[in-house]
Description:
- The protein has 2 helices and no strands.
- By secondary structure, the protein is an all-alpha fold.
- The chain has a domain at about 25-65.
- The longest helix has about 40 residues, at about 25-65.
- It is elongated and about 75 Å long.
- The model has no long low-confidence stretch (mean pLDDT about 95).
Amino acid sequence: MAKTNPVQFIQQVRAEVSKVVWPTRREVLLTTVMVFIMAALTAIFFALVDLLIRSGIQGVLGFFG
């Protein structure tokens, strides 16, 4: 692997960073809201599954205990 001159390295980094497409403020806001919505839905889903499993185990233990 060839060594790169530090000046060339900085030029290459700047060239690559200029290719990055940065999201707009609206896109960031929308994706953030979507993440919070999906996290809330996931939390509700797992809370319901936990409640169902807990009720089932309590029913089985109550039946045999």
